[in-house]
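Lecture 7 notes: from sequence to structure.

We start with a single chain of 390 residues. Read the sequence below before looking at the structure.
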Amino acid sequence: MTMTPHAVHRLDEVDRLAIRVGAVPASLVSLIDTANSKAVERAAERLRLVLGDTVVASLGRPCEAPSLGRAADGTGWLPGRAEFERWLTAEPRLIAGPGTGANADMELRDADGKLPGDRFGNRLEPDSDTFQMDIHRVRRALDGGVTLGVRQFDRWSAALAALMDDVVAVSGADVFTKLFISAGTTSVTGWHSDRQDVIALMLWGSKRFQLGGWDTPEGGPASRIVLDEVLKPGDSLLFPEGHPHQAVPLGDDSGLLSIALLRHHNWISRNQLPAHLGVAEFPPNEGTYRRLLRSRLPLSAESVRLTDGTQLRTRIPGGIEPLGATPDGQVAFAAADGVFAASPDTVDLLASVHASFPIRLDEAARPGEQQAAADQGRSLIEMGLIVAGP
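Now the structure, written as tokens:
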């Protein structure tokens, strides 16, 4: 493998066999360790403005008891009803039918469960369980009290993508989001429990959230009510895996974001391989699992022009793990579900961005080495490890 001075390369299985484990300068290992710690600290600082101190303080470990939070600076920057409406009408959306509808954007439910997709759209193919949305039928359903669930809405919202990266950084968990749009007064999920910790974040409108006793049966009724709160915009609730709960809409138009936290132990307890992370076997420990976690931030254009004032931030919420040295003296490291090799100076730049994001290129560059930093930055962007802003 031949590399130009500032290039970053993804290593394949054969290349990885040649890594000299541990052969990384101690100063660079220390820099990376510091960068990982600072990145988590800064992520927690940003999250406190959205989720509040109590929720953020509980994120770094499996949740043991429910905690309520409140956005400190309002919810103006979070996606609201208007942004959702723009997303809904921007292009044809896909609705899940009677099957899983794995490729669908959304599904509709009432109190009896998931509704047939052919009520709200047109079948794409004769045997497909996915339907192309008819916006008029969907609107009528929402007005009639049906709840619309949008999968992974953070893929469509830059603000939520950045927020989810911070949640991943602080919790060390993979996150899966679902946006629930409701206008009725009936819970469409009823009393149930989830197999992982969950954060409920109210984006607009209001919803009544109830947690029952641990012995509440699936479907209810609750053995007793241990928490009964009306969540309003900017309110959040973190509760443990397995805790029975229900969310009841209150008649106003509401948007609630459910954030499922899939930790390392959740996959083991399910005996389910997190294959979406590109692994063929269970990650051996939480540290390895963390390094596999991917960013929600959209990639920068590879042709982006970098100037001294260009803002940079990383796309590696799980941090950087130095692995060793390649035969030609490059540093091998793991990050964001991949193993890469780069020059020590390039890894140094990556660590600087990771510790401080966002940071301007001229702030991250060594004195007199702005052009080298720009070349390194472009290569890191090409590999999807950092993104450039205005």
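The chain has two domains: 9-43+293-388, 63-262. Keep this in mind for problem set 3.
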